[in-house]
Amino acid sequence: MKYIKFLALALTATMLFAACGKEEDKVKDNIYQFKVLDGQGDSVSLATYEGQVLLVVNTATQCGYTPQYEDLERIYETYRDRGFVILDFPCNQFGGQAPGSYEDIHDFCTGTYNITFPQFAKIDVKGSNASPLYVWLKEKKPGEIPWNFTKFLIDREGNVVGRYDAQTSSMTTVERAIRAQL
């Protein structure tokens, strides 16, 4: 009888341990596991945005799609009070279209398009130096980043629920997807 109780206790402990491990894995497999650098080079945990709908965008200041900043700011202004945030990651990997320092890029974006959403330090989105965030995003919605202004939509639980390339997705489509998450 003692042996059976011991086995039952051991089995229960094993199941609880396994369940905790699985729950821990779930917590780690969302956008909140990442830290990125802000424009001053300080580390920012994306857990700061937990519970909000996010649109993660790789951007450039001298691209044919740069005017999308105007639409992005309009969308941000429209939905930010409902828990929506755009996370802007300048990237110079596509035709050298995001030259200059963070300050140059930020001054251009705020001065020309009046952006008010968070803008982070310049990153790589492909290749051996790709940001771990972008490696993860591409695992969740597979495929290389084809150009600037590729967008990833993140739900309130930190999961990737959409991917929109600038060449194939209209801002209307992106905005509709954002509204569906809010």
Number of domains: 2
Main sheet: which strands, in order across?
A: 4-3-5-6
User: Based on helices, strands and strand pairing, what is the structural class?
Assistant: alpha+beta
| Low-pLDDT stretches | 5-17
Write down the CATH class of the largest domain: Alpha Beta
Oligomer: single chain
Overall pLDDT confidence? 89
Give me the strand/helix succession.
Answer: HEEEHEHHEEH
Q: How much β-strand is present in the residues?
A: 15-25%
Fourth-level CATH superfamily of the largest domain: Glutaredoxin
Counted beta strands: 6
Radius of gyration: 20 Å
Judging from the principal axes of the Cα atoms, what is the shape?
globular
> What distance lies between the first and last C-alpha atoms, to the nearest angstrom?
55 Å
Largest sheet: 4 strands, mixed
Number of helices: 5
At CATH level 2, the architecture of the largest domain is 3-Layer(aba) Sandwich
> What helical percentage do the residues reach?
25-40%
The CATH topology of the largest domain turns out to be Glutaredoxin
